[in-house]
Specification:
With about 300 residues, the chain is α/β, with parallel strands linked by helices. The chain is built from ten helices and eleven strands.
Length: about 300
Amino acid sequence: MRHRTLGGLRTSAVGLGAMPLSVEGRPDEARALATVHAALDAGVTLLDTADSYHLPGDEPGHNERLVARALAAHGSGAADVLVATKGGRGRPADGSWTVTGSPRHLKAAAEASLRRLGTEAIGLYQLHKPDPAVPFEESVGALRELLDEGKIRYAGVSNTTTDQIRRAHALLGDRLVSVQNQYSPAVRDSDPELRLCTELGIAFLPWSPLGGISRSALDRHTPPDGTGTGIADAFHAVARDRGISPQQLCLAWLLARSPVMVPIPGASRPSTIRDSAGAADLDLTPEETERLDAATDPAPVAHG
C-alpha cells in the first residue's frame, strides 16, 4: 500500500468510507466488522466516519461506535489507523439531512464523538457542511478551540468552496489538513478546490469517488455531440484491457490527478475494499490517463 501525507501523518493512499456500514441497506454487524478488518489487513490506515451516519432518527453515532468496535477487535494492527469523523449534520426521522454549525453544537458533537470512539483525542475532526445560518468563521473557530484544547489533533472541512478553504486555512494554518468534497469522473465541480488543496498541501478526500462509471450512467454522460465513448464506457474498456475492475481503475485515475488526493470509497463487503485498496499500487500509462481524461473533461487539472 502506497502512502500519502495528511498533515504530519503518513496515511494510506486509499481510505475506507464507512458510511455504507450504518445507513440504509447496511450489512449485519458481522459483515460490517469483517469489512473494516479487511481494509486494515489490506493496508488501509484511514477510516472515514461521521456522527450522522446512521438510520434516520435512529442511533446517532452508530458508525463511530462500529468503527471503534472494529478497531478494538483487530488488536495491535489498528494502532496506526487515523479515524476521521465529522460533525454538523443530523438525520432526523424523516430521513432528511440537517445542518447545524453553531460552535456550541460542534463542540458538544465532538465531545460525543470522542466518547464513542474511545480515544484521548480525535485524529481528524471535520466540519461536515457549512451552515448558512452561522458565520463560517464561527464554525471553524470551534474547530480551532477543539484543537487548542487537545480534543482533536487535526481539523478539516467538507462541502466547501475555494473561498471557504482559504478562510479556514487563514484561521487554522497547517492544522487544517483535509478538504472533503464530492469528486468523481462524473462530478468535477470541485476541480478548483482540488487545485487549491494541491497548492496548499491540504489532503483532498473525495466522497462518492466512483460516480459515473456504472453502466447505468453511460447514456447520461455521453458527450452531446456524439463524439467519444462516454465516461462509463471509457473506464470499462480500459479496465477490461488491464484485467481489473472499473472501480479500481477509477480510484487509480483519481490518485493520479494530484499528490494530495486520498479517495475514501465506501464498502460494505470485504471483497470490495480489498479491490479498492489495490488501486494504490496501480500505475496508469500516459495513454490510459489521456483516454480517461478525455472522457471526463477536455481540460483536466494538471497531474501531480
